[in-house]
Amino acid sequence: MFSRRTRILLAVLVVASLTFVILDLRGGEGPFATARNVVSNVLGGMERAAATVFSPITGAGSWWSSMRDQANQIDTLTAENQALRTELNVLKNDKARAAALDGLLRVASVGQYRFVPAEVIAIGPAQDFSWTVTVDAGRNDGIEQDMSVINGAGLVGRVLKTTANTATVVLIVDQGSAVGGRVAGTEEIGIAAGTGSQDSLEFELLDPLADIRVGDAIVSFGSKNGRPYAPGLPIGEVVEVKGTSGQLTRVARVQPFADMSQLSVLGVVTKPPREDPRDSVLPRGDDLSVVPSPAPLGGDEAAGDAAVADDTDATPAEPAAPEEETAAVPVESDAP
Q: pLDDT digits over 300-328, tens only?
């Protein structure tokens, strides 16, 4: 058991503790209030410092979970973005192919060409020719050697050789290529030869006195039975003329209508038209045929009536005679 001295000391300590507790409960202004505040401030500062120091460690789990969620969200958005880009590229390609096929159908319908559509699947030299492409249609599709190949802008080339499912096309810009051509709107003919450049042909006139100017269009003259070149196919536009009228040789530089660097959907002409379409297939055919015949007649009548009204006071019955004369003009011009 405890000794007497120990029991007295314990009793004193218990009484003192109870006294201080009672005094503190009475208003918090006991003798140890200041010390308690000091200790509380010290311990609070230590707690805040410890929280600052150890917060990265204690929050590592939450941080890792947040980073993992963000990484998953980034991966999801990246995949969706890539899928949208792929879909957009597909739509662009489909739109370009639809536009190319649209132009091809226009050429074929205007010129009455029968053709087999084909898509370019390879580009490269073949059989001593530098400018050739391969299309995904061949003998099984009715394609044969020396058939004309076109796109929505005009003449592209001719079939060089075929397999069961493919065909090799030599382009008109190849140095070994030559096409009989005619200046649109005239009967002047010549030879359009490839230069090896994708945007240039040389057109040499057979008649050195023939008139040819910058801006003139060149169309294919046509071969026997439409092979290798069908008639009336747009070839290109004259951008430069070398030599003057009367020289032994006159050569014009021609820019092809078809862009040889952007060939996608082509058409192989399997049957040429019965009649030469002349200049009707030209991309700018509407500009070449200035005005239909009825319009100038009406315009001349209006101009004639205005001139008569200004120059003389004719009676209303007098303009009837000019109307009959102008009405007879198309009959006389159509007779030949």
A: 333 344 333 344 443 344 444 433 333 33
Q: How far apart are CA 189 and CA 312, in angstroms?
A: 50
pTM, two decimals, is 0.59
b/e sequence 54-77, b meaning 16+ C-beta within 10 Å: eeeeeeeeeeeeeeeeeeeeeeee
Give the CA-trace dihedral at 209, 186, 263, 177, to 10 degrees.
-40
Which residues lie across from 269 on neighbouring strands? 115
Answer whether 170's CB lies under 8 Å from 132's CB: yes
Could you tell me if residue 315 is inside a domain?
A: no
169 falls within a domain: yes
Q: Where are the beta strands (DSSP E) in 4-136?
A: 114-123, 132-135
Q: Which residues pair with 99 in a beta bridge?
A: none
Containing domain of residue 244, as a range?
Answer: 113-272
pLDDT in tens, 55-96: 667 666 677 778 788 888 888 888 888 888 888 888 887 787
Structural domain tally of the chain? Answer: 1
HSE of 110 in the Cβ direction (CA atoms, 13 Å)? Answer: 22
CATH classification at residue 210: 2.40.10.340
Nearest-angstrom CA–CA distance, 192 and 61? 77
**Roughly how many angstroms between the first and final C-alpha of the chain, as a whole number?**
152
Closest by CA position to 36, among listed 24, 26, 45, 48: 24
Beta bridge partners of 47: none
